[in-house]
Amino acid sequence: MSAAGMSIATEDDASYMLRYTFFYGITEDLQVTLTTPTVIERLENAPRTRGNSMMPSNGDIEAALWYRFFSNAFGVGKRFESTAILGVSAPTEDVRGQVNVGNSIHGAISTGYASRTWYAWLGGGYQYYFEKDNQQLGDLPYASMVIGYRPDVFMGDYPKPDWRVFIESLVEFPGDNKYTGQQNFTDERSKKVLVGPSFLGLYGAWGISFGALFPVVQDLTPKAIKENYRVSINLSYWL
Amino acid sequence: MKKIVLLIVVVVFGSFSSNAQIQKIDQEVFGMDCAPCAYGLERGLEKLDGLEKVQVSLNDGKAYLDLANNNNLSLRQIQEEVKKNGFSAKNAEIVIKGNFVEQDGTYAIQTGKETFKIAEATSTNLRSRLKPGIVKVKGIVQDEEDGNLTNKWKLNITQVY
Q1: Which of A45, A234, B54, B68 has the maximum number of C-beta atoms within 10 A of its C-beta?
Q2: pLDDT tens digits for B117-159?
Q3: Which residues are the signal sequence here (chain B) (predicted)?
Q4: Contact A79 B84 (CB under 8 A)
Q5: What is the C-alpha to C-alpha distance for residues B94 and A71, in angstroms, rounded to an integer?
């Protein structure tokens, strides 16, 4: 299980949220998750985004099924694996960014390589919000890439602490919201590229990660919200 | 007198048979790259009855196991636990006490649960030191496919005690 603190800052405002996630492994390859938010401060005009493939960055409660459909452990500490995620979510607020919020579905796929020294992960996903009272939040295709490295100084053997540094990048193509009285909906999408560092520390059954993402490209539709940064901190415990 | 001799034979043989077991396993594990991975495997192994000491090394990619006296654990149970935690069990170095037997022209060491067939790679010198009955050896158990584990293994003996 994990507890996370997340914040998204736009040009005008910032959101603050705590999020609790519970993981349960049904088999070695199948896992269910449930993530619930405690929203401390909502954005009046929230950008369409997710925190990552694991959890939303808004007020949604999400349940998901993870299936590791490929795994190849080919060396000491080395493996390739691929995972598919399918989730459903329900909002905890009625309106988000002045648009009614419906339930949504989310699907993602990721594949990557892990070793004791290097990590590389590629993924992509799509979230679709259902219409509610003639209004609909925009959909969200996205892709992400993570490169991780553990320097020799952090190569202490278990049960010593285990630290890694990452560079994360995220590309999002959020669709515009649809709402009553809207004229000339063009189906255009914004394009965002965010990059930033993150750190992961593991000790026994505990894990802590923290990081930030900064937009380097924001090609936005007129109604989309410009972001300044995203930060998150996540504390995990494996029961 | 005959009864006493018979009783001694039964007691001695019975005692040796009950001691036929694996005593130590250094199990190579592939795919384990993080502290929670090691923690999960360590915790899973500790739940198995018959282990005296469990130590998992991420850098070596190994689980070092000391088995208790009179344990009833099998190598298959250990490797299945590795697989259950999402990793792949590879070669294992074991210290084993078992009954050395000849079966259809091949030689093997048997414990209560498993048979370790002596691999051809075992040197002639070491093989010649094995006599029928209870023996104690150290060796490398060759990797078997994780999804197709049986109670039969190939053992390349590296030391005879």
Answers
A1: A234
A2: 999 999 999 988 998 999 999 999 988 887 788 889 999 999 9
A3: 1-20
A4: no
A5: 27
